[in-house]
Amino acid sequence: MAGFTRRDFIKSALMGVGAATITISLAGCSSDDSKVAQNDFSVDFNHGVASGDPLADRIILWTRVTPEGLPASVDVTLQVSEDQEFGVLSHSKQLVALAKNDYTVKVDLTGLAANKKYYYRFATTTAQSPIGKCKTLPINDVEQVKLAVMSCANYPAGYFHVYAEAAKRNDLDAVLHLGDYIYEYGMGGYATEKAAEMGRTLDTGNDKELLTLEDYRLRYAKYRSDLNLQALHGNVPFIAVWDDHEVCNDTYVDGAENHNLGEGDFSARKMAALQAYYEWMPIRPMVKDQMESLYRRFDFGDLISLYMLDTRHEGRAKALNYANYIDAQTGQVDLLNFQNDLLSTEQQLLGTNQLTWLTDNIKTSGSKWQVIGQQVLMTKMTIPAELLAALANPSTDVVSSITQLTELKVRAKQQDTSLSQAELARVTTVAPYNLDAWDGYPIEREVILKTAKAAGKNLVVVAGDTHNAWAGKLCDTQGEVCGYEYATASVSSPGLESYLKLTPEQCQKFAQALTILVDDLDYANLYQRGYLTLTFSKEKVDSQWYFVDNVHQERFETGTKQLELVAKY
Predict the structure, then answer these.
(1) Which of 63, 91, 352, 531 lies in disulfide reach of 80, CB 3.0 to 4.6 Å?
(2) So what's the pLDDT on residue 396?
(3) What is the pLDDT at residue 25?
């Protein structure tokens, strides 16, 4: 099944899952609908509630019921009100949670007013869910929109303090979650070494690497038991997209780095993982002729057109690997073949259909800001090849290499004539840092940047994936600035400070050095977990990163960093 695509998965596996998303019009309550559902067994709402994919007239509402025993179905009532006390129900509807959908309930509630808050809850005669708050998108002339951006939440790696901090806010229009909502690893694997002392081990029976539908469902259940995550979901709508760890590390269309011999058919694993994602996340897939894709658009009046992209499962070719271009005997790099493969039209990240959809929408949108929500860094992160080699071998003295190269780069920028050709070559011989990011797929990146530039659009890209915070200019091959990128730190997954074993002080120096060594990079934080907010107005974008000083203790401190971007580049 090497040619199995995500669309094949949708056809073969999501017919039932798609039916689980019920469309309900907000047209008032009938006498029958006003009754609360009754079952012959007890029911709990252990995983909270969630809203997502808001539009101007509709929104997805989600919950999961935990019934006594394993019934085939559970009757549930949805109640919606314009006030938190539910004094007057604007809507009440009888629903059914099915065992075949892991007892998840997902409702596409339509007929809502634009830019309006609603309160919702799910209930039976024996239990009631927490109350959730949601908000529809605005229309027409919009003065301001505030979005929170986050990604990479690893349950065993640390407390979800970042979710808790974001949940305290009342000024967010939506949360953009850019993926790695869960991780597939088992205990003893990546970032689990402190889990036991924090009381954040994975449950027995689900503490191995995820492979089956039941595995993935149980892992979502574990993550959604976290009260901080529940609080954020209950307070603000999510606009989410998957990254790789929702399936397994470094996925592409027909494989993954972390899918190995003895782990079964990759297509079956991917099918199971994506089905669990659709069940547990408050998302509305794009539907066209009964075909579904996760990339989709949201308009915040005339201010923002937001495009959520899938850079993992829709069209991604396998990332190139430097090791495949190095002669094992001589150590020489085959630059010609590397460049040919890097610039091949087959080296796609989005795929032709998704790229065409994106560029067509950017060209025709009338919004002030074109915002792309996606997973991996788009900024050109070309660094001296010497530093790239040092980072690939953490046993080397990375700090010394950074110090020397930074001093040379500063002298080169100052046009210091005393620099030797050998010294100059140390900082001008550069290579992409991460071929799994947009640097490994430069042709499609150039198409996007050229499209935005030619159409005179204000382009902003947001990214996750790296576990660290970044900001940089998006420049085309001629060096013209075509947009700007902001990247969020992780919720709990460790960053470069862990990989390179650097102190906070060393990380701060390294971050400053990178803004010198990488021409398009303006900001980096390499050691703290956190999230990002972007506040859009007609004139500018204000970005602010919110950091926590640790995720391994229940007590923590917070800090911020703010940057401002004007509307024209």
Answers:
(1) 91
(2) 72
(3) 52
Structure tokens at 297: 């658009």
DSSP 527: S
Cβ distance 317 to 344 under 8 Å? no
The 8-class DSSP code of residue 202 comes to P
Tell me the torsion sign for CA atoms 379, 181, 257, 387.
positive
Contact indicator for 198, 159 with CB cutoff of 8 Å: yes
Q: How far is it, in rounded angstroms, from Cα 8 to Cα 11?
A: 5
Q: In 309-448, at which residue ranges do the beta strands (DSSP E only) sit? A: 369-373, 382-384, 430-432
Instruction: Copy the structure tokens of residue 220.
Output: 């979502």
Tens digit of each residue's pLDDT (9 = 90 or more) over 446-487: 999 999 999 999 999 999 999 999 999 999 999 999 999 999
- Contact assessment for residue 318 and residue 255, using Cβ atoms and an 8 Å cutoff: yes
Residue 31: the pLDDT is: 38
| Average pLDDT of the chain to the nearest whole number | 92
Pair of tokens at residue 298:
């949201």
Q: What is the mean pLDDT of residues 75-101?
A: 96
484-499 burial: b if 16+ Cβ within 10 Å, else e: bbbbbbbbbbbbbbee
Q: Give 330: exposed, middle or buried? Use CB within 10 Å, 0-12, 13-18, 19+.
A: exposed
Distance (Å) of CA 542 to CA 36, 195, 352, 486, 524: 45, 36, 33, 11, 16
- β-bridge mates for residue 565, sequence order: 541
Distance of CA 35 to the CA centre of its chain: 39
Prediction pTM value: 0.94
Distance CA 431, CA 370 (A): 29
